[in-house]
Amino acid sequence: MLQVEKISGGYGEEPVVKSVSFHVKKGEMLGILGPNGSGKSTLLKIISGILPAENGTVTIDGRQASHYSQKEFARKVAVLPQLHAHAFSHTVRETVELGRYPHQSGLFSSWSDADEKAVIGAMNSTGVAHYGKQSIELLSGGEQQRVFVAQALAQEAPILLLDEPTNHLDIAHQQQLLNTIRKQAVENGLTVISVFHDINLASLYCDRLLLMEEGRISRIGLPQDVVKEEAIQQVYKALVKTEPHPELPKPQIILLPDRIGENLPLLVTKEDFFVSSKYVVLHAKSPLKTVSSAVHNAGTGWYKTFVNRHVDTAYNPADVKGEMADYLATEGFRLTDTVGMMTAVTTEHVEIGEYAGKFGTILVAVTAGIGNAVDVSQALKRDEAPRIGTINTWIIINGELPDEAFIQAMITATEAKAKALQTEQVKDPLTDTIATGTSTDSMLVAATQQGEELPYAGPVTELGRLIAHGVYECTVRAVQAYKKAKGWPS
Amino acid sequence: MSKSSVAYIVSAATLIVAVWAGVSIGSVEIPLSTLWNKGDATATNILWKIRMPRVILAGLVGASLAIAGAAFQGLLKNPLADPYTLGVSSGASVGAVMTLFFGLSLPFLGTFTLPVFSMVGAALTMFFVLGFARLVDRAMKMETIILTGIIFGSFLGSVLSLMIALTGEELRQIIGWLLGSVSMRGWNYIMMILPFVLVGSILLWLNRRELNAMLFGEERAHHLGINVKRRKFMILIGGSILTGSAVAVSGTIGFVGLVVPHMTRLMWGADHRHLLMLSFMNGASLLIICDLIARTIISPSELPVGVITAFIGAPVFAFIFYRQRRKGAM
């Protein structure tokens, strides 16, 4: 559809764009990224014919762009500029009608049915149809930009070039605009080339990305191949991390600010725990990076307060999450900062241990109820609803862990827990085999993300050894406490 | 009925009323029937020899200035632009004042020496302004054109001031010409500017859609498929032809070229597909009415019509402006 072959060009002596080549297929959306001054807007201007190319060629539909007349070119390529102001006010409809200019010819250039259809269609698909008679001057920035999208669509060119189309728009308008354009690309085969300031938006909406660095292509390819930590850090000279989008297979970047004004250093100790008959609470001075299977605020996040709450054996509300949130709020915990779990055992029987390694300390807290113990190897034989009885395990680490270390910590802790149940000869009441856990166990790993970097947490690593030992020891003691309370033989 | 049809009907009706008032009102009342009833020789004479050419000339001058102003405001995207912005009118004035100053009268031309010299002055100025602007900036950006116009305009203005300062008995004549008047010109003047009015207006009208697009900026116009450079040239030359010829036959009549396009825009919208022709009609009406006032208000003496245009135009403009803004606010 569009082929760019070794083009160079710019304003003065030294070209801003240096020998750039790429091609775009029909219906594809290509995003051009790059820091200020990297030549991305200049590249777009050369493609759109505003600036002459000093070298190289742009080929559209197999024909060199410079061989098109101005009107022919406008029938092939529409351009959506950045938002701008102007002196006199046209109505919305008049503005969109201008998009038909390249299709009109002759002295009187009568308005054809095709013109009318294109204008109506463009106004409908951008949602500006009902503004028709209004002056664009009176519209908000976001609405104005939609009118210009309608103008570009009315042009009915198979290629659309955009220069930072979402500048100055709020997120709703950004989303609307890019959804509209993406829809045109997917449904009508519109080919789109757009300069983006916002790497995340580009990654979300584009099929491929082109990263410019000092006038040259640094990378070109799928978003996941271009939006990479090292590439972005090198080209933009900014400290970032990349993360997958929570819902889509598209990478997103996250800025890392200097950690100024934070509570440094942060250390969690046994003294931060508070135990009563209602709950076990850990209150850290600053949020910890947390991965958990809790009831309230499960998953990954940053939380300060951790609550393991006692419920009685008859506890069975319809909406467990809602009830838990209400309870936490009533007890005066801030819902956004707090992770909440529950257990039917006496919370005073919690086992809390502090374990020191070379890097620092970890804390382990376990409450164990084993009335509902399960041997996972026999799980297929079970068909009944879970009964009361839970082992809740918390591991708090004074150190910095990557994501994979959190997972390894979970594995290590789970293995230690299973071993503790074996040691204590805890049996699955249904199968009378040694249990590996209960049917409703919960686990939480939290780290301060300060101090020493701890890359791994497998059972023979410095950190893993502490976790294995700590979880095993605390679980054994918690099980013993449970048995004692129930009057079981130990 | 669409808004634009209403606009054309209202403007045409105004023009007809203005023409009727212009030919019939004066020191001698001329009944409308004189147009077809040749019974009264004196009335017929006054109508066809004096009133009608005067009204038509006023109409053509007003129309030329208004349509040129509308086009320049659109092209330069500047609401303060008017036909005189490019300095072409200063060139025309220098040509005219030079004729008066040196008492020139070429053979064959006789009394037409002044308008011919004036037109030559306008043409030369246009040539130099556009040539110089192109020399400075091959892309001919609007700012370049405006600045070049200011440079040439002020230089020619100083030439005018010099001649005025050095002149003796011709002073009154020069000032009178500069203030602008359409009196005692006759049919020959009409025949002289008619082709220029037609060519200039057609050139502008052919660019009505391009002017609409250029309001959004030259880059935008380029992307919409407009050959911006060529169109800009057509508009500048069309406007200059209109301005030069209007100034040559009537002097520098102010205000019409600035205000009529604004008034028309406020009443009927900014779409050049209609704005140009509507400004043309309204400019004609306004100048015919102003000229009528100029020659009747202190009868039997006459005021220069340029005095009246501003005197009438400014308050009318203020009123429309006020009403529009109030409506916009509510």
Protein described:
The complex is a heterodimer of chains A (490) and B (330). Chain A has helices at 40-48, 70-76, 92-97, 113-125, 141-154, 171-188, 199-205, 223-226, 229-236, 320-330, 403-423, 462-486, and strands at 2-9, 17-24, 29-33, 55-60, 63-64, 77-80, 159-163, 191-195, 208-213, 216-221, 240-244, 251-255, 273-275, 279-292, 299-310, 338-343, 351-356, 361-368, 373-374, 391-397, 437-438, 442-447. Chain A is an alpha/beta fold. In chain A, the strands form five sheets. In chain A, strands 13, 14, 15, 16, 17, 18, 20 and 22 form an eight-stranded mixed beta sheet that branches. In chain A, strands 6-7-8-3-9-10 form a six-stranded mixed beta sheet, sandwiched between helices. In chain A, a hairpin with a 3-residue loop joins strand 13 (273-275) and strand 14 (279-292). Chain A is elongated, with a radius of gyration of 31 Å. Chain B has 330 residues and is an all-alpha fold. Helix content of chain B is 75%, strand content 0%. The longest helix of chain B has 35 residues, at 41-75. In chain B, 52% of the residues are buried. The model of chain B has no long low-confidence stretch (mean pLDDT 87). Classes of the chains: A alpha/beta (490), B mainly alpha (330).
Short description:
The complex is a heterodimer of chains A (490) and B (330). Chain A is an alpha/beta fold.
Number of domains of chain B: 1
Molecular shape of chain B: globular
CATH architecture of chain B: Orthogonal Bundle
Count the DSSP helices of chain A: 12
Task: Give the topology string of chain B: H per helix, E per strand.
Answer: HHHHHHHHHHHHH
Would you spell out the secondary-structure blueprint of this structure?
The complex is a heterodimer of chains A (about 500) and B (about 325).
Chain A: E1 2-9, E2 17-24, E3 29-33, H1 40-48, E4 55-60, E5 63-64, H2 70-76, E6 77-80, H3 92-97, H4 113-125, H5 141-154, E7 159-163, H6 171-188, E8 191-195, H7 199-205, E9 208-213, E10 216-221, H8 223-226, H9 229-236, E11 240-244, E12 251-255, E13 273-275, E14 279-292, E15 299-310, H10 320-330, E16 338-343, E17 351-356, E18 361-368, E19 373-374, E20 391-397, H11 403-423, E21 437-438, E22 442-447, H12 462-486
Parallel strand pairs in A: 3-8, 3-9, 6-7, 7-8, 15-16, 20-22
Antiparallel strand pairs in A: 1-2, 1-4, 4-5, 9-10, 11-12, 13-14, 14-15, 14-22, 17-18, 18-20, 19-21
Chain B: H1 3-24, H2 41-75, H3 88-102, H4 113-136, H5 142-166, H6 171-179, H7 187-205, H8 208-214, H9 218-223, H10 228-250, H11 256-268, H12 272-296, H13 305-329
Helix pairs in contact in B: 1-2, 1-12, 2-7, 2-10, 2-11, 2-12, 3-4, 3-5, 3-6, 3-10, 4-5, 4-10, 7-10, 8-12, 11-12, 11-13, 12-13
